[in-house]
Amino acid sequence: MIRRLLLPAAAAELVIAALLGLAGLAGLAFVALYAFDGGDTQLLGVALALALGLIGAALLVASRTAFKQRQVEEDRPEFAVPGEASRREDAIEDATETARAGLDGVTRRRLLGAAGAAAGLGLGAAALTPVASLGPRVGKLLGESPWHEGTALVEENGLPLRAGELEVGSFITAFAEGADKRDLAAAVIVVRVEESELELPPERRDWAPLGLLAFSKICTHAQCAISLFRYPSFPERSPGPALVCPCHYSTFDVLTGGNRVFGPAVRSLPQLPLRIDAGRLVAASELSGPVGASWGGVREA
Amino acid sequence: MIRRAVAFLDQRAGAGSALGKALRYVFPDHWTFLFGEIALYSFLILVGTGIYLTLFFEPSSSSIVYHGSYAPLHGQEMSKAYASALDLSFEVRAGLLIRQVHHWAALVFLAAIVVHLMRIFFTGAYRKPRDLNYYVGLTMLILAVVEGYAGYSLLDDLLSGMGLAIGNAVALSIPAAGGQLATLIWGGRFPGAGAFFSRLYIAHVLVFPALIASLMALHLALIAIPRHTQFRGRGRSEANVVGTPLWPGYALRSLGLFFCVGAVLFALGGLVQINPIWQWGPYEPYLGTNGAQPDWYLGWLIGALRLMPHLDVAIGGYTLIPNPFWGGVLFPAVVFGFLYAWPATERRLEGDRAQHNLLDRPRDNPRRTAIGAALFAWVATIFFAGAADRAFVQLGVPYEGQLWGYRAASILFPIAAYLIVRRVCERLRKDDGHPGRGSGARVLARNREGGFEELPAGRAPGAAGADRG
Fold this sequence. Notes:
Largest sheet of chain B: 2 strands, antiparallel
Helix content of chain A: 25-40%
Structural class of chain A: alpha+beta
Strand content of chain B: 5-15%
Low-confidence stretches of chain B: 462-469
Oligomer: heterodimer
Number of strands of chain B: 10
Strand order of the largest sheet of chain A: 2-3-4-5-10
Strand order of the largest sheet of chain B: 1-5
Structural class of chain B: mainly alpha
Order of helices and strands of chain A: HHEHHEEEEEEEEEEE
Mean pLDDT of chain B: 92
Largest interface: A-B, 89 and 103 residues
Number of strands of chain A: 12
Number of helices of chain A: 4
Shape of chain A: flat
Low-confidence stretches of chain A: none
Number of helices of chain B: 16
Mean pLDDT of chain A: 90
Order of helices and strands of chain B: HHEHEEHHHHHHEEHHHEEHEHHHEE
């Protein structure tokens, strides 16, 4: 479109000068806004955008009008084509010969090559070794958890979590007493359902006193924090109460002990067996599985 | 004046002849050549705004209590990183503008690279002698994705922390080495040691930008040495290059584009809010929010993580390959592996080992265009699957149904794209028409004997495609 402006050269130059002048003003406006207006983000952005845009417009108009435009033709450098004789073949020959000539007089090339490779390998290994300092040996680290028999559950403010505080259908985040809250395994979700609804496997029968269940808060798929509790309080009640991860929507069934019912997670949500100790919620033993995302070698269950 | 400047350079660097050559360097004119330039200019703006941000940002995970001017977070415990990003947004004049421009520039940078890659692919510009440069470009794209992820992960707000949790899970999922690898990078189990933020920071502000800048210099050199490619046209051959010389025509135009890219980015940064971190709050591993979405260039990976059925490889009750591996590692590896392998694959398929300086139009090579379209359809379908939860909230389409729909689509769409695009290309090649241009009318002309005959397409006066030689 600018090509068709067909401004006379003198007029074009005036237009360009005017655009550049306005750009300068917009730049000054930015300075003034910064100094006197307290730096309003929108106005600052507009001022700078105007300054840049006007310069851009000036340059584009200039490239189409005031400055001479021409189409030219240039030859390309020739590159070697395999199987075709060309000037480049000589260049390849020349470079190859020079490289080879430097090796003349060396008799045990293989030996030297192997020794060089050995030196490189050794030095490479030495150079890479300090990488090991970046982190601890993985060992059993990934499966660690602050939950043991008797560990008390506390709320986010550090106060003990009491069984009587939770109504049916409620949902609260709790932590292992004394643990770092940022420890991936420290946070559990405590939910309460009707005791009669529970369908826990026989070995977990006594893990949920009064219908209170605790699960690791960290999704076993990609370790986002599970933040949704689906508890249908009127029919249609199926599927039943479930915990949902907001990242990729892995869904875990509460009544059967954290089995995955939907989404990409594979492992069940680790369950924390609970007992009630003088009204306080306490871990009856360790979590039923490792917390967080799976890694090669983790127990599937 | 100009002579004195040139003489100054020539006497000290012998640069006179090289400068003359550079000023006469020929740029073929085609609008599709601008995407690479947009990427380059976005990168310059990223570096400029990024340096400014480093003057205020503290990459530290040590904990403080917030007392800044954003009242809703008063008294909250948070990391210094997040607090300094809040101060940068509220206390530092023009700080929010620069931060938002930086974020927008990253989105535009990656978008420009991806569109540029599509231009290169569909016109066959990656063929010898430019295959080497194509590999450099692909590597820059990977680096840019990681760089962008590192950038928005640094802020330690709730969304970036959730992104890091997923990244850690993907690292853990790498068979055999994953557990140790993730533990090394994070300096321990997620959320990692305090040093992790130093690592992320130096990667984001030095290591990756330096790698990208070096490869960019190499990329430009490898463009200039064999000269630009060009489309076929009158007077254009494999041996020459026809277009506008750098000075004055192209330099002014390209500089104009730089300023226009800057204008758009500053307008976006000033007027369109992006990543309002104060709304998300600080990250703790036990906090999460619904409706979290990453920056667009990671959408294809979150889509893959969501679409993948719940499948681990396990032996005897022990996991060998955890689920996030499929979407987070294997999927991008397959896509990039295909792209890296394609130039050599095509050379073998077509037995074509020649040099190519003239570009194909997409129709000129129906197979390549169809394969490219299929790959794009595959990645794009999975990309949209990443937004299925938003479609559920906004439009009410059930999530589970969408998931199955996308799974089917991610298999069917690429096949359909391949068949349709191949057919369209072959048809276009036969008719030599232009989609969206020309009426497709047949032109009849009277011949010497007085009868009428149809002129072949493209031979009629004024017909589209007539100037394509």
